[in-house]
């Protein structure tokens, strides 16, 4: 059962999302919060698999709530998905930097919401190729953080290859095909890279790959 926490200051959105999610046999909404502070407290209490968090809220906003969740080792199992009205922007990028697994636009169709919750629960990033392209464009116009210790030197050659492919939006199966290894081995390379780089998920690997220069536009 996938346990979901809803954090949004719009009651109607929470009601709609809960009604949709609770219809599924494998998904359960365990709690709701109207601001980031309450959401953080409920995350600690319920330890959900996925937290759907609005990016703009009173008291504590979605970016700070995400950062606090990502920084708490007791909440390592919680995968944060940011909710936004506007699509990919600087706020979303900052949320990815501090630990969000991805983001959803609030007018998402029901099928895509359900798919997103299941993807996030598996620990995969919600970064469609179109979003990866926007991340690339973000770094075309800005200099890379040269000289920054990103931890890439600690990666093996195969781990670096896998991270580069993650940054280009490839799935585990696609990475396995290109590296001529099994999907399980590909996942192992990625998981080890995340551990060495202190990345919570694939989304942070994408950001790190571009910021470090491992992958260039």
TrEMBL record:
Transmembrane segments: none annotated. Gene3D superfamilies: 3.40.50.2300. CDD domains: LuxR_C_like (cd06170), REC_NarL-like (cd17535). It comes from the Bacteria. Residues 3-121 form the Response regulatory domain. Pfam families: GerE, Response_reg. The modification 4-aspartylphosphate is found at residue 54. Residues 148-213 form the HTH luxR-type domain. Keywords: DNA-binding, Phosphoprotein, Transcription, Transcription regulation. This is Response regulator transcription factor.
């Amino acid at each position: 059962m996938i346990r979901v926490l809803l954090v949004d200051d719009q009651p109607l959105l929470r009601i709609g999302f809960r009604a949709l999610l609770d219809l599924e046999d494998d998904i359960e909404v365990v709690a709701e919060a109207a601001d980031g502070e309450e959401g953080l407290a409920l995350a600690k209490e319920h330890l959900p698999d996925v937290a759907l968090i609005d990016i703009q809220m009173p008291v504590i906003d979605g970016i700070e709530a995400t950062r606090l969740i990502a920084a708490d080792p007791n909440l390592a199992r919680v995968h944060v998905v940011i909710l936004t009205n506007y699509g990919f922007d600087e706020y979303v990028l900052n949320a990815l930097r501090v630990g969000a697994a991805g983001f959803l636009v609030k007018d998402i169709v029901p099928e895509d919401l359900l798919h997103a919750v299941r993807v996030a629960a598996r620990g995969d990033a919600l970064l469609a190729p179109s979003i990866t392209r926007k991340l690339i464009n973000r770094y075309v116009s800005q200099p890379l953080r040269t000289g920054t210790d990103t931890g890439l030197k600690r990666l093996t050659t195969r781990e670096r290859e896998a991270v580069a492919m993650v940054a280009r939006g490839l799935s585990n199966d696609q990475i396995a095909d290109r590296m001529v290894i099994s999907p399980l081995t590909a996942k192992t390379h990625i998981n080890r890279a995340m551990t060495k780089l202190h990345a919570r998920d694939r989304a942070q690997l994408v950001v790190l790959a571009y910021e470090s220069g491992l992958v260039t536009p």
